[in-house]
TrEMBL record:
<comment type="function">
    <text>Catalytic subunit of the ferredoxin-thioredoxin reductase (FTR), which catalyzes the two-electron reduction of thioredoxins by the electrons provided by reduced ferredoxin.</text>
</comment>
<protein>
    <recommendedName>
        <fullName>ferredoxin:thioredoxin reductase</fullName>
        <ecNumber>1.8.7.2</ecNumber>
    </recommendedName>
</protein>
<dbReference type="Pfam" id="PF21349">
    <property type="entry name" value="RUBY_RBDX"/>
</dbReference>
<dbReference type="Pfam" id="PF02943">
    <property type="entry name" value="FeThRed_B"/>
</dbReference>
<keyword id="KW-0411">Iron-sulfur</keyword>
<dbReference type="InterPro" id="IPR004209">
    <property type="entry name" value="FTR_bsu"/>
</dbReference>
<dbReference type="GO" id="GO:0005506">
    <property type="term" value="F:iron ion binding"/>
</dbReference>
<dbReference type="GO" id="GO:0016730">
    <property type="term" value="F:oxidoreductase activity, acting on iron-sulfur proteins as donors"/>
</dbReference>
<dbReference type="GO" id="GO:0051539">
    <property type="term" value="F:4 iron, 4 sulfur cluster binding"/>
</dbReference>
<keyword id="KW-0560">Oxidoreductase</keyword>
<comment type="subunit">
    <text>Heterodimer of subunit A (variable subunit) and subunit B (catalytic subunit). Heterodimeric FTR forms a complex with ferredoxin and thioredoxin.</text>
</comment>
<dbReference type="InterPro" id="IPR048574">
    <property type="entry name" value="RUBY_RBDX"/>
</dbReference>
<dbReference type="InterPro" id="IPR024934">
    <property type="entry name" value="Rubredoxin-like_dom"/>
</dbReference>
<feature type="domain" description="Rubredoxin-like">
    <location>
        <begin position="132"/>
        <end position="166"/>
    </location>
</feature>
<dbReference type="InterPro" id="IPR036644">
    <property type="entry name" value="FTR_bsu_sf"/>
</dbReference>
<comment type="similarity">
    <text>Belongs to the ferredoxin thioredoxin reductase beta subunit family.</text>
</comment>
<keyword id="KW-0408">Iron</keyword>
Length: 167
C-alpha cells in the first residue's frame, strides 16, 4: 500500500522540507536517496496517524503522546549539537555537511514512556499556575504563555497557524 507513494510526491515533499530547513538555518542530510527514504516514512506516518511522526521511532498513534517525536522532533537540536545529526540523520550540522565531521551512531535520547509521563505531569503542574493559555509551535516546540499565539514564531519563523494550544 505505502510502496505506491508517487516519486513526484516524495520529491515535492523533499524540496519543501529542504527549503524549510534551510530557511530555519538547518540542513538536510546530503545523501538524497537516504533522505528521500526518510521523507517517504514521514509521508507514510502522516497518512497513517495524521501527523509526521519520526520515521525511525515507534509512534503510539496518539498525537498528544507523540508530540516530542513529530518531525522535527524535540531531540533534533541536542542531537545536532552533540553528534552532528539528529537520531534518524534527516538533519545534519554544518560540520557534517561540509565534511569536517563524519556521521556516527546516535543514541535515542527519548526517555522511556513512564519517564515521559512523569515529566509531563511535572510540567503540567508547573504550567497550571499560569494565568494565560500556553501555545506550542508545532514546528520547533517553542512555548509561550499569552492570550493567543504569536503571528510568527520567534524561533523558527513558522506562521500563527502552526501553533496549537498546549494548555
Amino acid at each position: 500500500m505505502y510502496e505506491d507513494i508517487p516519486e513526484e510526491k516524495i520529491n515535492k515533499f523533499h524540496e519543501k522540507l529542504k527549503k524549510d530547513a534551510e530557511a530555519g538555518g538547518y540542513h538536510l542530510n546530503p545523501d538524497t536517496d537516504f533522505t528521500k527514504k526518510l521523507v517517504r516514512g514521514l509521508i507514510v506516518n502522516e497518512d497513517r496517524y495524521g501527523y509526521q511522526a519520526c520515521p525511525c521511532r515507534i509512534s503510539s498513534g496518539v498525537k498528544q503522546e507523540d508530540l516530542d517525536i513529530i518531525c522535527p522532533c524535540d531531540y533534533r537540536d541536542p542531537d545536532l549539537d552533540e553528534y552532528g545529526a539528529c537520531y534518524c540523520a534527516l538533519y545534519v550540522s554544518q560540520d557534517v555537511l561540509s565534511g569536517k565531521k563524519e556521521l556516527s551512531s546516535i543514541p535515542d535520547r527519548r526517555p522511556p514512556e513512564e519517564e515521559r509521563k512523569m515529566q509531563k505531569e511535572s510540567k503540567l503542574q508547573a504550567i497550571s499556575s499560569l494565568n494565560y493559555p500556553v501555545w506550542r509551535c508545532k514546528v520547533c516546540g517553542y512555548l509561550c504563555a499569552r492570550d493567543g499565539p504569536p503571528e510568527i514564531c520567534p524561533i523558527c519563523k513558522a506562521k500563527k497557524d502552526r501553533f496549537e494550544r498546549f494548555l
